Amino acid sequence: MSKIERICPTCGKVFYVWPSYIKKGRGIYCSQKCMSIGQSTKVERVCPVCGKVFYTDPSIIKRGCGIYCSKECRDIGNTTKVERVCPICGKTFYVIPYQIKKGGGIYCSNKCKDIDRTTKVERICPVCGKVFYARPSKIKIGEGIYCSQKCYGIGKSTKVERVCPVCGRVFYTRPSKIRDGGGIYCSKKCGGMARTGERSPVWKGGISFEPYCILFNKEFKERVRAFWGNKCPVCGKTEEECGKAHSVHHVGYDKEVCCNDNERLFVPLCHSCHSKTNYNREEWEEYFTHMISIHGGKCYYSKEEYEELMENGL
Question: What is the model's pTM?
Fold first, then answer.
């Protein structure tokens, strides 16, 4: 049995652990140090029953707990039923939230549940045009499209004509690929071109071409890198391993941060990790802000501290 890749919720480091450890609720943190930090840094929550603000460990939230502030509120929350509408008979019924969490509470009765499993829906095969019947439960999971295994094979192998929106070239792709949201561009090159500049989903009006604050200079970057031990805090790679100095990333994506009153938050990142921060920016900003808060809100050395380090040869 091979080990499973995990990401430490405290430092973001990738590590590997046996599946049996995960089953026991272990293997969450990469080290004892990160476990102590993760379990001591509590997260603010609001009780859905009484509205009280309380704090709980991130590891408890990960297990699906930490919802209620007390046992009393948990009992109320688990007994207060939620209104549902049966998809078979249309009847309104009530169910405990915990049942919905487990994937239940869909039908008002076992009778309606059985009807859904036995009543078949009329479908038309997209390959041969034949009318056939499929169970609603199969249709829900994306099956029941073809009338037979033969038509399924033809449908998967028969390619559809498409026109590339970038170069205008006619190309052919599988229907299943189109159904999954692909088959738009004729090549990876055209797909890349469609996501650059103003056509990119992360386009911010060309701010990448704007100049940085003059205080964000070589000497300041060295102070940031030195504070983080010249390592990428996400993957742990050193500058020696990468063969070049790490990029200094603006956590708030504000190039004028050193010249205005905004909080100065920086982290040194290797090329691979830095490229990832162009996507899901809000998540990355939250992730790095939490990481810096662990260091007391500090992310770079002052000039005096840096000069002292240089004098001591550190």
Answer: 0.37
